[in-house]
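re: that chain from earlier
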Amino acid sequence: MRELFDIIPKLPGVRVYYFAQDEETAKELSEFCAEAGHYLEIAALEDEVYERLGGIEAKVRRIDEHKERYNQRSWLFDTVFITYDLTKLDNQKEFFKKIYRMMKNAADIVVIVEPSQSEKLQEELQELNFVAINPIELGQKIAVTAKKMHGWTRV
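^ sequence. v structure.
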């Protein structure tokens, strides 16, 4: 997972958003962002995940999947990481539409999924105007990376 953090632009003031599933990855990303001087916000879609993230050095929030917007301050983010289990979502397409709206133009998204979910996710991201969609093998998982298309299309 640490190699994927290199996707984050090496510039000052970069904003990173993370939909967490586990404490270990959240802690690694938090340390990486602190070293690089990046702003990190971590979202937990479940109470159990939120409770485990208590000691992480970042802005950690518990949000509801059905919330109208995921970014409270209307900030746009440069990179969005998702390790959350997408099979637990009620509406995966709406989830990604909300994420699309919170990303800067040409921002990166990295979604960690099971190999069986990869193809469907890639098709869905393409429908939602993401471009440069690439699957990367990570042992037992697949990291699907993509970029937000420059903002001339509304989602």
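Residues 13-65+75-148 form a domain with the Rossmann fold fold (CATH 3.40.50.150).
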